[in-house]
Amino acid sequence: MLSHEDLSGECCVVCDNLTNLRANHLCHLALEEDEGRLIQMEKLDIRSVNSERINDLIDLCIPPDKKDDPLFVEGMNAKKRWAITVIEKHGSIAKLAYLNSEPVGLIQYQPNLEETVVEISCIFVPEERYLRKGIGKSLLEALTEEMKEPKPIFHNDIPLAFVTWAFEVPGRYPQHKFYQRMGFRRVRKGDPFLLYYPLKKGYIYRPKEKKFIPQEEDRGKALIFYDPSCPWAIYFSENIKKSVQEAVPNVPIRTINKSEESEEVEKRGQVPSCVIDGKPIETSFMDKESFQKEVTRALGYSG
Q: Is 96 helix (H, G, I), strand (E, B) or coil?
């Protein structure tokens, strides 16, 4: 099932409770306030990401000043492994917008075969000069056209819908408004951010509810789960680890790649970004004080 945590965004968060983890740094999501003003000076070329374009996809996600940082190098390598695996299994996982042969924007997605939907994790245009030029709209329209064709992974049919978690990014045009202008609907009446777009007429998306299933082996330990589809995931997971170590210095910590150790995810159901002593931590690590208080409470400490 698609959840707030899965659409990250870790753009891409990213990572569970990813809405909070990604929103401030990861995808400076460039959603056009006026999608009609398309770039006119040159033809915008939309291409699907294959094995030869993975590096272009990853490069767009990371600011130039972060590309030599060891945590981001590790994150980029993890995303590359993830992308190669998913492309071999399902086909393309993203589309790139090129202008003058240079990548200027992306839309990233992957199939949810259990629910027969396509989950959109990120629409991203990093450079200010390309904002409000219709790039996001062009990418979404290209993906929509592609998904109108039957796909073997969907039993030679089309997916039922797009689903996305429209997390907010300060200083940018509200993502959920962009999606709603593109025809997306709320999944729940009171939630403006979990949205879907029916690809089959009359379809109404109802997410399958999953819960975290604690394991006996989790007792007395900290587990940190990260989604390698986001190159910021290692950076986030290391920050979570440091915060946990500050709060409870002696607790054993295990970091789990949700793609490469999928069996660890499957047996626990819906995993958050952090689990302490078998208890999901709901507070974002970005709220350090509250996060550390919840961590210590999970271990039975006072405070």
A: strand
Predicted TM-score of the model (pTM):
0.84
User: What ranges make up the beta strands (E) of the chain?
Assistant: 45-48, 94-99, 102-112, 117-124, 161-165, 185-188, 191-198, 222-226, 253-257, 274-276, 279-280
Cβ neighbours for 88, distance < 8 A, ≥ 6 positions apart:
none
Q: Which helix (H) or strand (E) holds 149?
A: none
Q: Residue 180: which of 169, 164, 200 has the closest Cα?
A: 164
pLDDT tens by residue, 101-148? 999 999 999 999 999 999 999 899 988 889 888 999 999 999 999 999
Mind listing the domains of the chain with CATH numbers? 18-198 (3.40.630.30), 216-298 (3.40.30.10)
Pairing of strands 222-226, 274-276: antiparallel
Pick from 137, 146, 166: nearest CA to 27: 166
What counts of helices (H) and strands (E) characterise the chain? 8, 11
- In single-letter form, the type of residue at position 47 comes to R
Rg (CA), the chain: 19
Tell me the angle at which helices 70-90 and 233-247 cross, rounded to the nearest 10 degrees.
130
Closest to 62 (Cα-Cα) out of 107, 28, 93, 108 = 28
The pLDDT tens digits for 183-210 are 999 999 999 999 999 999 999 999 988 8
Among residues 82, 40, 44, 86, the alpha carbon closest in space to that of 61 is found at 82
In 63-141, the DSSP E strands lie at 94-99, 102-112, 117-124
